Amino acid sequence: PQSVQAHYELTEVRQPARVILDRQQKLSDDLKLFSTEGERIIVSSEGDVCPQLDQSGKIDLTATLKAVVTQHNINHLWVEAGATLASSLIKANLVDELIVYLAPKLMGSDGRG
Q: What sequence ranges are listed for the domain Bacterial bifunctional deaminase-reductase C-terminal (predicted)?
């Protein structure tokens, strides 16, 4: 059997857009995500989409994600998030499906990954 990768030429495969939430403007140009193909949408005060803030000055995830999907014609989002963002998305009722990957070892906040 032929592999999917061998069957389709790379020019035929559409890579999904990467939406990056950078609330502290700490993205470095040397990150791997900037050297790979595909559209990147940066959500930051200096990015492609400016985050919407709530009354307390925190990012309003519902309004911000609505702006992203509307401006960039996105139908589905796959979110790779840490515990804080994942928890915020769940609390805001923005999660339809949850897939959890667990590492065999927990290292804590000081662990190197």
A: 9-112
Please give the radius of gyration of the chain, using alpha carbons only, rounded to the nearest integer: 17
Per-residue model confidence (pLDDT) at position 89: 93
SS3 68: helix
CB 38 within 8 A of CB 32: no
Amino acid (one-letter) located at 84: T
Where is 5: in which H helix or E strand? helix 4-7
How far apart CA 37 and CA 14 sit, in angstroms, is 10
pLDDT the model gives residue 111: 60
Q: What are phi and psi of 108, to 5 degrees?
A: 80, 180
Tokens 């923005």 locate to 94
| Number of Cβ within a 10 Å radius of residue 69 | 15
Please provide the distance, in angstroms rounded to a whole number, between the alpha carbons at the two ends of the chain. Answer: 35
Token representation of residue 11: 């020019």
pTM of the model: 0.70
